[in-house]
Structure formats: structure tokens, C-alpha cells
Write a structure and sequence with these properties.
Blueprint (H helix, E strand, L loop, with lengths): L10 E3 L13 E3 L5 H9 L5 E4 L3 H7 L13 E4 L3 H15 L6 E4 L14 E4 L5 E8 L8 E7 L4 H8 L4 E2 L10 H6 L7 H4 L6 E7 L5 E5 L5 H10 L5 E8 L1 E2 L4 E8 L4 H14 L5 E11 L9 E12 L11 H5 L10 E9 L5 H4 L8 E2 L5 E2 L4 H20 L8 E5 L25 E6 L1 E2 L5 H22 L16 H5 L3 H11 L14 H6 L21
Parallel strand pairs: 2-3, 4-6, 5-6
Antiparallel strand pairs: 1-7, 3-4, 7-8, 8-12, 9-13, 10-11, 10-12, 14-16, 14-17, 15-16, 15-20, 18-22, 19-21, 20-21
Helix pairs in contact: 1-3, 7-14, 8-11, 11-12
Amino acid sequence: MPPAASLSVVALTGLALVPVALAAGATLECSNPSQLITKLDDLFSSTSAIGCSGSQLQKDNAGGYWGEQYAKNASIVVYPSTAKDVQDAVSAFVSSEKGGKTELAFGSGFHGMTGAAATDGYMIDLKYLNKTELVYKEAFDGSIPAETVITYEGGARWGDVLKTTNGTGYTVVGARDSTVGVGGFSTGGGIGFLAGAYGFSGDRLLAMDVVLMDGTLVTATKANKYADLFWAIQGGGGQFGIVTKFYQKAALEPKLSHFHLWVVANESETQAQENTATFFESNTDPFTLMYYGYGYLPADIQNPTRDLAGRTVLIGVQFGNPADDAKQPGFHEVFNNQTLLKGVKTLSDVDYDLPYANAFEVINQFFPYGLRRGFWGPQTTKVTSGLLQDTKTIVKDWLDSLLATGEKPLTSLWAVQYMYPGLNGNLPAKSEDTAWPHTVAGHQTLFSPGWALPKNDKQTLETNTKINNLIYDHQSKVGPFLADYPNYISPDSEGHRVWGDNVQRLIDIKEKYDPDCIIAQGRVFASAGCTKRGKANIFAKSGSGPKMKYKRRQ
């Protein structure tokens, strides 16, 4: 079986999803193994696995994608369970397939929206590499000051991580959905529930263990000889190597989480928009936030499949300040007695009090599997009632058009998350300090459509472009240029839209660490090697080269 669940003073290893037999060599599900597979079987640890086309291991990988249109049937899927296994998986592939047509990809949670974690060829599925530990006073060979850190391996999912940290007094800034993998999230910025209080996940990283495309394993920090690699992965994504372990500075764990969801009556939508704008301007607590959303929602939030229509939802969230909760304003003081619900009639509501580690339970319901999905959106420094209404109009038109085709766009939603100004002092000082420039934190918008029919892909993408252009135009009038959050990159976005003036440096680092462009799926920086292979789609100069192709799975 896969690495067993075991609790120690500092660690809980997550359960992998596919049973694997303990034996000499990896579990092998291939009827006619190639020389590459035979070699890997000899090299891999006994808790790893290999599956070929048609095997259950291969099918499990193909069925694990959150967005249905991104899934592919890899001909070989390997499941390494140690960093050395990852090294062997890379080295064996490069030595046997370099210059061939087989493409390599790797992934953990498979929530990404670029196709980077999908291939018809050779897939490295990291989900067996999933251990989390709380480590006190990690010094990283003296290159940075000792800190209490939480380490999580590259195949873990955030639900696994928080099971380990729950009740320890420490936690991480992680994703808001328990099934999201740590890899893409951590390398693409990392906006979580606690970002307003502690900063983005990527900015809290102190070190990363990375397998390069020549099979070597290195530890990258801000100060050692791999500082350029650290910089690139800290917001530049997974184009430079495979991270087998992240080291995130530990944060104090909130003792309690409070969520309240309200479905707004149609006649109160304008008031709800005005109240939302007021909250965004007036909130003073970094542990308190809210979401405004409009989507295909039920009238009764506790009966999610009945009486569905385009509706507005308000979500109030508060985490107990672990350092000074006595001075923190109470939840009902903030949301019920002050601004958000003033003059608003609601159709239904539901209230949750639960530990921080279980906060996912509230949000997971909005992001089910089994649909074609999008997850896109810019930031803005100022949310106005007019912006909310204009965006709602675009989303409503999209919903109405899909409903007319017989679609049921369940859980489709456009939302904006409140972000505390300056992220409570946890932003980089200069745009060049991190690959993703974000010296100013905007409120994060999100278009999360869910649909079933491939014929509606085009209209959905066009709707996303309309929303983006509306918000870009709005932001140009109210504040500075804000680079898009990398994990919400839109299919038609150019490099500057996300990485600003840092694109050329990212291209150079891509060439340094992956000169043969082995990592070539999804959004690919235009290094010499990737340009030669015809894989490049992120260029330093706007308008250069082809746009990213949105590949449809029928």
C-alpha cells in the first residue's frame, strides 16, 4: 500500500488514493513494459508505483483533474514516493526520451488552468510524495535566520497539510479548497484565507528542494547559489524544476473560524453591492474578510440543487486573532450590526463555527469535480457598487445563454475576495523582489464558471475576456497597474499582464535550468530551447509569438 498514515510528534503522512503493494521495486501495472519502465521499476522505492495505458493507476490519474477539459490519458504514469524517486523518474525519462516526441508533465492536485499538469505521454503524479512536518528552528545551513517552519512535500494537498498542523498552534497560508495541491498553489503566488493577515503563501517560503531536469536535487533559498531559481519559482510557476519539498515560515494558528453565508433577495442586490463597497473601504481587522459573489445559486443555501437561478451571495469570514483576540471586534459586530447587512433582505443563510483546519468544508461545496472549469481573474485596489453591478450584468448574460442551451452551470460564480490593505505589512518592497510583482495587493476577483458542453467553451472564454477588460479599465482609473495573480492566469493573457517587467529574467532562468525545454506544457517561457522546440508562449515583448492555445477535451 502507499505510505501509511502515521502520527508522530511532528508529522502525519497523508493517505495516497491508490493502494500499492509493498515489495521489491515499485508496484507495476503494465502488460508490456518498455525498457524505460523496467529501468524505473528497478530504481523506484517499494512504496512507489507505475501504471501504463488502460491500467487502474493510469485511469486514476486521468480522472483526477478538476477541470474536465484539461485531463489527458498519459501513456505512462509514475507515482514517486521519495525525492530520489523523482530524480530517477526525471533522469530515466531524459536519457530515453530526449529529442523524442513524448512529453513530460507533473502535478499534485490537478486544479491548474493552463494544462501544465497534463500530457498524453509521461506523467509524474506526485500524490504519494505527501508528508508534512512541523520543524522547530530550521536554519538552512545558516543562509537565513532560524525559523519555525512547516515543510510539505510536493504531492501533498492542503487538506493533508492542515490535518498535520491542526491543534499545534502553528499553521500555513494555504488554499481555500482541501483538494488543491501544494505545488501549483505555492509556486503561483498563494492566496489563501489568511493572506490578509500573514501575506501570500509564496512570500512565506524560506526554501525549496527542487529536482532539476538533469536529475539533480538542490535546495534553493533566497541567499544561496540557487537564489535565482528560488526567485523564479516564487511566483513564476513550475517551469524550472519539480519541487519535492517546500519550507514555509509557520504562522500562528487561529483557534476558531466563523463563516456566515447569506443568499440575497433580488430586490436587495443594489443595497448589497453598496454595503460590500463600504465594507471594503472600512474594515480594520486583517483576520476578517468577506466575499461578494454572483452566480447560479439556490434560494435556500442548505438545499443546493433546488430553485437555482442567478443570485447574489455574501460570505462573511472571521478567524480568531491568535495574538490578540481580546481586542478583535466580534463577528456579529462587524457583519450584522455595522455595514454588510444594513437594509439587505436575505432568502436564506447558514452559519459555521469550526476549527481553522476545517474551514475548507465551507468552500469545497462551491468547487465540485465533474465539470469543465475556469478559474480566472484580475485584482483591483477599489471595489465599487458600479463595478459589482457591471460585472454581474456580464455574468448574468452568460448564465442566461448557457441555460438556453440546456446547460446547468452548477456552482458557476463570479466573486471578489476582500484583501486587507498591504497584507498587514507582508508585501515585497520592490516589484523585482519576486517573480510575480505585487508590491500593492488588490482585492482578488474570480470568475469560476462550471459547464458541461464543449460547444460553450468559446462563449465562456469570451465572457472571461469581457470581465477582465472591464476590471482592467476600472483599475486604470482608480489605481496603479496590478499584475494578475499567476494562479488565475487567463488563457489569452500575455506575459507582462502577469509578470510585468520580470518576464525576460524568467526566460533567462528557464534557459539556465531547463535548456532543453523538458518542461514544456501549459504556459512556457520563451527560452532559446523552448522557442526552438516551438513550445514557447510567454514572451518578454507583448504581441510576440502565438497566443496560448486552449485545448479542448471533448
